[in-house]
Write a structure and sequence with these properties.
The complex is a heterodimer. By secondary structure, chain A is mostly helical. Chain A is 65% helix and 11% strand. Chain A has one domain (1-181). Chain A is elongated and about 80 Å long. Chain B has one domain (1-156). The chains are: A mainly alpha, B mainly alpha. Chain B: Keywords: Cell membrane, Membrane, Transmembrane, Transmembrane helix.
Chain lengths: 198, 164
């Protein structure tokens, strides 16, 4: 009984607005994660030694392209934000198209695929950042966050946005799957009554 | 008759996914190698990396869940819940594989810009076992995606369309 009530609640017109709002939030979260990580770059000059009395300086750059996990992070977040933008466009401007079960099924499947994609990207970047922040004494990998603090901070911000995107995409996917059970139109021109399949 | 074969197919898929997740778990846990070079003894275990620990935990959760769902009775109402839980488990699997793969890639190729040297040269057997665990985890992921599509199909089509 509770499940059918949940399903009914998921298909009312109010939930259409909720779904749209969630998609806008997820779009902005993943887009900001992609942009912040994509522009993540820090250049610093260090003293690496002394020749006599004069210090020898070398310039090091920390870019997101150095780490394949971050490249995957940027690409995946861009893809998921593009998917959300597409779904928002379909939601707003696709009202005249017939609401077939194929359309709902493809939306649900695409949402599921994008949930897995964004969770994979966020997690890979999170664990690589953990190695960069704490180092790994077993593998003798030094931490880099003490030297490139701004790079690490921006990366942390992008990660938080991506994890917010993960949670939002999971909720969106759950709503899309529950809308498969009882489809109804979400366009603003028709009435708000949910249709029950015979 | 078609329904019975479908159900048996789904059971076989879930058993295979359980087996794959369990295999990934066991192979990762038993990966341990001791190497010594330059009078320094180095032991590589899966607990050295946080990503590998997460991989083990995620695969343990997925194995236990698969095992429990194997015994779910056919007419239970929990099958609708199984769809969402399947999605959660797929997310858990992809994230664990992705994290372990990212760290293992650094271990194999190193990261010249960060000054991280590859470790696979010193502990090749450990690296091979980690690779095997990752492959098993990937197989479990593919099976879980198939299971997710199947449970979506079985929950949406027969159960709810026939309810009046």
């Amino acid at each position: 009984m509770a499940v059918s009530k949940l399903v009914l609640a998921a298909t009312s017109t109010k939930s259409c607005k909720v779904l749209l709002g969630l998609r806008v939030l997820a779009f902005s979260a993943t887009l900001s994660a992609a942009i912040v990580m994509g522009l993540n770059k820090e250049t610093k000059t260090f003293v690496v030694g002394n020749v006599g009395n004069t210090p020898v300086k070398a310039t090091f750059t920390a870019k997101f392209q150095h780490t394949p996990a971050f490249v995957f992070f940027v690409v995946a977040n861009a893809m998921v934000s593009f998917h959300n933008m597409l779904m928002i466009a379909v939601h707003l401007f696709g009202g005249e198209m017939e609401f077939t079960s194929f359309r709902l099924l493809s939306v649900a499947i695409l949402d599921m695929l994008n949930v897995t994609l964004i969770s994979a990207a966020a997690n890979a970047a999170a664990f690589i950042s953990e190695v960069g922040k704490n180092g790994n004494k077993h593998a003798r990998w030094d931490k880099i966050c003490d030297r490139f603090a701004t790079y690490c901070d921006h990366g942390a911000g992008a990660l938080i946005a991506a994890f917010a995107g993960v949670v939002l995409m999971l909720i969106i996917s759950a709503i899309s799957i529950s809308r498969l059970a009882q489809p109804n139109k979400c366009s603003s021109s028709t009435a708000a009554a949910p249709s029950v399949l015979p | 008759m078609a329904k019975l074969t479908k159900r048996i197919g789904a059971l076989v898929l879930r058993l295979a996914a359980f087996g794959a997740a369990l295999a990934a778990l066991i192979v990762m846990v038993t990966s341990r190698e001791r190497a010594s070079f330059f009078a320094v003894s180095l032991e590589a275990k899966y607990t050295d990396m946080a990503a590998f620990k997460y991989f083990v935990i995620a695969n343990a959760v997925v194995s236990v869940y698969s095992f429990l769902v194997l015994f779910l009775p056919k007419e239970s109402l929990l099958w609708k819940f199984v769809v969402v839980l399947d999605l959660l488990m797929t997310m858990l699997l992809t994230s664990s594989i992705s994290a372990a793969l990212a760290v293992a890639q650094v271990g194999k190729k190193g990261n010249a810009n960060a000054g991280w040297l590859p470790i696979c040269g010193q502990v090749p057997k450990f690296c091979d076992q980690v690779t095997g665990a990752l492959i098993a985890g990937f197989v479990a992921l593919v099976l879980y995606v198939l299971l997710l599509l199947y449970s979506l199909h079985s929950v949406v089509d027969p159960f709810l369309l026939q309810k009046s």
